[in-house]
Amino acid sequence: MQKLSISEIIKKIEAEETFEAVADDYSFTLKIEEYVSYVCGAVHDGHQFRKELWENCLHTEYERWFEEDPCTKAFIKTNPIVLAGRDSRFEYDLNREPDNAIFDEAWGKQLWKEPLSPSEKKQSLEKHTAFYSVVHALVSKLEEKFGAVVVYDIHSYNWRRWDREVPVINLGTSNIDNERFGDLVENWRQSLSELQLPHEIQATSKINDTFFGNGYFLKFITKNFKNTLVLATEFKKIYCDELREVIYPEVISAIEQQLQKKVKEHAALFHKTFNS
Hints:
Elements: E1 2-4, H1 6-14, E2 19-23, E3 28-32, E4 38-42, H2 61-67, H3 72-76, E5 81-85, E6 105-106, E7 109-110, H4 118-146, E8 149-157, E9 169-172, H5 178-193, E10 205-207, H6 216-224, E11 228-236, E12 240-241, E13 246-247, H7 249-274
Parallel strand pairs: 1-2, 4-5, 4-8, 8-11, 9-10
Antiparallel strand pairs: 2-3, 3-5, 6-7, 9-11, 12-13
Helix pairs in contact: 1-4, 4-6, 5-7
Protein name: N-formylglutamate amidohydrolase
InterPro entries: N-FG_amidohydro (IPR007709)
């Protein structure tokens, strides 16, 4: 893996070079093994938290981990194009628009002992801006090359706070063109419901049952690229004990191995549908 500046990453994309890189400020990673018509993203995978913010933060390390999406990059790591955040959403949230990307309060609890200074906010928002400049360059290149693109926007969610049964996988579709893409959304939902998971976990999958696809990553791409479908895909945290901060690697491995095949198959169907 190389360490590259944002401009170097964008130049490589424009030249259709294959590479694996971390941004030079270590805020995100991008791997392109091959230029294909689909992207896998894990914007909330990151847990890094700038050291100069530690003393000012009222949330513990565990509280931050609890609200992040640990291991979501691991679910998709073997796909050809993988984009993943490395910084915690508690510093700045890549799935929120810039004006709301920095929390003052997070999940009902004040985040900072003292309000962040303008310079502290600026440093975080510059990373948010840089990430989206790369997203724009990447999807532009893929739409130019393939005509239509599908983005698998992978997240996870805590299930113990719900007072009802919730699905293992939820697709949020309220901000996509369902008239145009509805059949492909249903195909993805059906495919995920067939995941074979350890410990007799049934891979229930529903649409807009817990979350509705209101994230900025989806909205940014959907607004800027009319031929790109973003599938906001939330996994219930069946792959860890969210109360004890224990990860279950056998569950992660099962998801990752099957997603490698399912993403490829679904992307092929998407490409065939929109290029027939």
